[in-house]
Amino acid sequence: MLVLLSHLKYKIIIFCALLFVFSSAFAQKQEKQVASVDSMLVNYFNRSFDSLFLGRINTIDTSLLNFSHFEALNKGYNVFSTLSSNGLAYKSMIFTPNFYNGFDTRQHSFSRYIQTSEDTRFLKPLIPFSELNYMMGSKKEQHLGVTFTRQIANRLFIGMEFMIDDAPGPYKYSQSKNSRVYFTTRYNVKNNRYGITSNYFNNKVLVQENGGIVNDADFENNLETDRRLIEVNLQDANNKIKQSGAGLEQYFILSPPTKILPDSVEVEAKSKFRLGRITHQLEYLRNQLIYSEKSPLADFYQPFDIVLDSLKTYDSVYQMTFKNRFQWSNLGYKMHANDIPLYIYGGVELVNASTSDSTYKQDIWQVNPYGGVQISLFRSFYIDGNVKLITGNHSNGDLVFNGGVKQFLGTESRNLGNIFFQFKLMNQSPSWIFERYYSNHFRWENEFTSSKYVSFLAGYYFKGVTFGANIHFIDKHIYLNTDARPNQSSGTTKMLHLY
Q: How many whole angstroms separate alpha carbon 14 and alpha carbon 132?
């Protein structure tokens, strides 16, 4: 195994070196064309061409300001409860209701380590761009990241991002090995009337489950300073998550280009009515969830269900999702640098999915309409809202509605910050794992009712400082109780969050 890992590391280093050499050679050829442009400037947009045309462009930070924030949970301002080592399961300490989008395919306790189509970045380099970062942390924890993008032909771009996190953990049998990679392509015709993107992603999460330390006093009284010597409950249980998939998006602007601007970009003629554009998105996702254990009769499992196989545990769940989205929006040829006065979109999502284990399989179909609107007035007042309804043979009647208002104060020369208000309404069916689960140690079948969530968020932002309050009204919330079993509250709970 050590030999294989060593060969793998050498292959990665050689591959990264080739990328740098190839990119540098190509950059030298283009040096005369972009001599006046910052070669380190790399922009990107997420998920959809609509983000690009709406001006929702982000810039890759090539500075070293946050270089030490190498752990996924350290990025941002959230607070998490963890299992002692980077890469293991975690839980946010700030309650935020998640919408399952009809069929819950996300692994919420590991989602920060997993890359999906929604997280994919389509890079916009001025010249070929490569970035390599490596960091070694405490107890030989290692993080390796590679980013590469370049233009290989007129208006044709390719990109790749790769990340490995390997953490042995401070305690016995708490190692994590997480990897994620995705590849992207992007192309549009000369007049921007048609464009297409595609992506492929692959994630693997491998973690050791030690079940916690045997005697809490070893930690509380610091009886053993070397955490690797403290006895743990499990020493051969493993959790494996594999998530992979691919996505494609293409758009076509209905109005023909009739006017050529000085920069040779064609736009539709000025008129009171524009036909907008149609967009097609295709997405495929596959999940493989495996829990294995060589000692299923360990004392750790005694409080749970009777063991079915006393020789070994191999619990597996397989999920597949195939989605087609057809959408219309009022966007045209113009790429907006500033706020668009009115943005309207609407469409329908067709879903075919399945989930199965060793004894059960469920086929799912859904037809989910959705839509949204964004309004900008006087470049200081903003309104946005979106809604989605789930229909079909799974999670029928689920609904999510988001609305928000933002008002900037003062003037452009004398900015006094902004005040904002957000509202969220959700009607949500139980996740598949709460309804039915069958394994060597846990088995249940439940008939829970839908949960309802109403959230209000308000605050004030000024020069990097935000003050706010978030209040949730939670009706019939479903959760895992202290016995590691799903439970549903009987009434309504109010939760207030000040920050």
A: 12
CA distance 238 to 179: 16
What are the sequence ranges of the domains in the chain?
Answer: 37-62+70-337, 341-353+368-499
Instruction: List the Cα angle 469/470/476 in 5-degree steps.
Output: 155
For residue 41, what are the CA distances in angstroms to 37, 61, 148, 152, 315?
Answer: 8, 9, 13, 18, 47
Q: Which residues pair with 194 in a beta bridge?
A: 252
CB 281 within 8 A of CB 323: yes
Measure the CA–CA gap between 160 and 125, rounded to whole angstroms. 12
Whether 184 contacts 123, CB under 8 Å: yes
The total number of residues shown for the chain amounts to: 499
Q: Of 388, 401, 302, which Cα lies nearest the Cα of 348?
A: 388
pLDDT tens, residue order, the chain (499 aa): 434 344 444 444 444 444 443 444 343 333 334 345 555 677 888 888 888 888 888 887 666 666 666 677 877 777 888 888 888 999 999 988 889 998 999 989 999 899 888 888 888 887 888 888 888 877 788 889 999 999 898 989 999 999 999 999 889 999 999 999 999 999 999 999 999 999 999 999 999 999 999 998 888 888 888 888 899 999 999 999 999 999 999 999 998 887 655 554 555 545 556 789 999 999 999 999 999 999 999 999 999 999 999 999 999 999 999 999 999 999 998 888 777 889 999 999 999 999 999 889 999 999 999 999 999 988 889 999 999 999 999 999 999 999 999 999 987 778 899 999 999 999 999 999 999 999 999 999 999 999 999 999 999 999 889 999 999 999 999 999 988 899 999 989 999 999 9
Cα 56 to the center of its chain, rounded Å: 17
Q: How many CB atoms lie within 10 A of CB 217?
A: 10
Residues 6+ apart with CB under 8 A from 109: 89, 90, 91
**Residue 334 CB contacts under 8 Å (≥ 6 apart), including other chains:** 53, 267
In DSSP terms, which residues pair with 381 in a beta bridge?
377, 407
Q: Per 3-state DSSP, what percentage of the chain is helix, strand, and coil (rounded to 5)? A: 10, 50, 40
Helix (H) or strand (E) holding 479: strand 478-480
- Tokens at residue 181, please? 């990679």
Sorted by sequence, the CB contacts under 8 Å of residue 124 that are 6+ apart come out as 42, 43, 44, 45, 57, 157
158 vs 150: CA distance, rounded Å = 6
Cβ(211)–Cβ(303) below 8 Å: no
Residue 258 contacts residue 269 (beta carbons within 8 Å): yes
CA gap 201, 11 in Å, rounded: 20
CA distance 375 to 384: 6
Q: Which residues contact 387 (CB under 8 A, 6 or more apart)?
A: 370, 371, 372, 399, 400, 401, 402
